[in-house]
Fold:
Amino acid sequence: MGTPLFVRNKKKVSLTAAGTYLKSEVEFIVNHLAVTQKQLKLIAEGSIGELRIGFLGSAMQTVIPELLVSLRHHFPDIKTSLEELSNTAQVNALLKDSLDLGFVRLGPCSG
Structure:
């Protein structure tokens, strides 16, 4: 890669800043390939696509059911997958392209 990716000593190996960046990019690429493969399968089955939704448990009370009913009404060929995740896990999943949409709870606003 033209730059050191690891720092090694007799006791441990750790990533350099470049190594950390490359690791996150590779995770994104591998996940995107998996998503692409899944989308191709859905297209081959006659489905249009999939919407991957992350949520906090509290969103399951009304927000998620109402969203799913509306999606099914307006986009009947779109499949959905749901994953209950913490705020941080949803943000990370969005950044890694393993979620399309997330429902998080915001902290109190100041000001």
In short: The radius of gyration is 19 Å. The first strand starts at residue 6 and ends at 8. Strands lie at 6-8, 13-15, 49-55, 78-84, 101-103. The mean pLDDT is 88.
